[in-house]
Every structure is written in C-alpha cells, then in structure tokens.
Amino acid sequence: MSDVKTALLVLFALMHIKSLPGVYTVRSLYYFVQPRSLLYYVKPGYRPQPRVGLLGTKRYHSRVWFDDLDLNIHLNNSSYNKMMDFARIDLCTSLFPSWQHLHKFDIMLAQTVLLFKAEVPRFSKYTITSRIFTWDDKWIWIQHRFSIKRKVKPVRKTPLEMVDDAAVQRGHAAADKISESLEDEEDDLIMEEEDEDDIDPIEARAPQGSSSINNDDNNNNSSSRNVGSSSTQASHVPSSSRGNVNGAASLDVPDKLCCIAYSRMVFKTPKGKTIKPAALFEKMGHKEAYPGEWEQYRELGMSLVESMMKIEGHSAEATPASRRLVAPTRAKI
Length: 333
Description:
By secondary structure, this protein is an alpha+beta fold. It has two domains: 9-149 and 257-310, Hotdog Thioesterase (Thiol Ester Dehydrase, Chain A, Roll); 151-254, no CATH class.
C-alpha cells in the first residue's frame, strides 16, 4: 500500500512540477548560468553581442499544465504574470547579454497591464512574443502577445482543383483559376475570424522598409503580412506542392491572439540612479539601421501606449482625483 501512495505522490508532484518549491528560482537562474556565461570568467574583458536586435522579437514557448488551470479549466490569471517573468528575462538577457555579469545596472519592474481577448485552453501549447514597444527618458515598455494555433477545418478540393498537375504547371493561368475557385468556396473553410486587435499595431502602421518588423530572433515566418495593411495573406499553391492528404489544402493561418500584456520597467544603477534607456541601448551594442529609426519607432509605440492607458497630459504616477461620496437618499414609504 505504501508503494501505491508513493507512486501517487510522485505522479501528483510531476503533474504540478512547475509549482514545486524552488522550481521558479531554478528556471529563472537558468538564463544566467548557461555555458556561454563561463566566458566572463575565462576571458577577461569579454563582451558578448546582443542575440536579438533592439526592435526585434523574442518568442517563449510553453504549455498549459495541471498547475496552470483554474475553475474554468483554462490558463489562470496568475500564470500569465508568472510566464511573463520568464519571457521578460529571456528577452532582456538576449538584448543585454552582459546585464547580470557586469552588474552595471538593474532592471526593475514597475507595472504590468493585461488585456484578455480569448482563453488559452487546457493542455494547449502557447507562445509569448515579447519585444520592446516604446520608451521615454525614464521608462521602457515591453509588449507580450500570448497566442495559440487556430483551429481550422481543411479545405476540400473543388472540381477545378482536381485538374491534372501537368496542366497546372503549364502556366500561371491554371494556378490562378484554382486559387479563384478556392476563394469562391468560402463555406469549405471554417476558421475563426481575425479581430482587428489581433493585427500588430506597430507592424500595421510601420513605414515600408522598416527593419523593426523582420528583426526576429529565429526569423521564422509564422504569419505573412503586408506592412501597412491589415489583411493577412494565405497563399494557395499548386496541388502538386501542397503535400496534403485526402484532398486537404494547407494554408498559412495566423495564430490566435489570446492576451496582450505590457510591462513598464526602469533601468537603475546599483546606487539607485535612473539610466536613460536610449543611452543604455547604445552602450549595450545596439545600433540604428538608419538615422532616426529608433525615434520613429519610439514615437509610434508611445502614441499607442498613451492612447491605451489614457495618460495624455498626466504622469503615470498621478493619483486619481478625489471623489466626494454622496449619502444615498432613502425613499419615503
């Protein structure tokens, strides 16, 4: 009987392994004790280069486990903040690889704002895409986008799609005809519509040729968008190159946005003096792709943050106006 109890306890611990004592600390320290960190002690004066561009993104992947579930059997609210901690550390150690070893500055978290859009279902994989959103002379805002894969029914082939592959390869006309037939059969594709908020505001409003869009850590094309446009493209390729089975066409479907979060942070010296973000960026080895790139990106992000948080004309620390409570009147019977 004792063996059964032990097995059950071990199984229960494994189901909640992310919440066991000390696991959070070990996961956080992992980013500072990686093998490349030993170079600081082996090579005097070693200064690593940033692994992510200043305007790039960093993706953190995770999955909803038993200890992440709430009463509604989906990702609970506290897990969003906990996973944002790891995503922030991952981003900051990639942007500023000498941050913790040189100990010339500290990164302090001042505020987090979460805007929920959809649930993250139980046991599903999700991705946190983090990046620097904007900054001023004191604060820096980091954006986190929680997303999951969309559920899509396969597109069944129409009669026009069942053209011989040789005919398709003879020219673009046949391929265009097949693409048009797919567009006509809208009922065959059942996909959740993309909300307006799902579209990245920086990407949608950035000028053509901006390097802030494709400056990703792993350069994968999870979704193909036109810069300056809110429409998402799903290219239809000839059936010979689709690699599908049972007549199902593969489409490049954008991820579903579940939550947008913002972290407001500040850089401090060990003595508590505030460091201006722009000065720190240059000191850490970041450079502009063209003159004015950072300022253009910063102004666009700041306008969106001010609009979202409604802080135009007021400081972020401003206290709300005092309200005079009025005693309720009693109805006369």
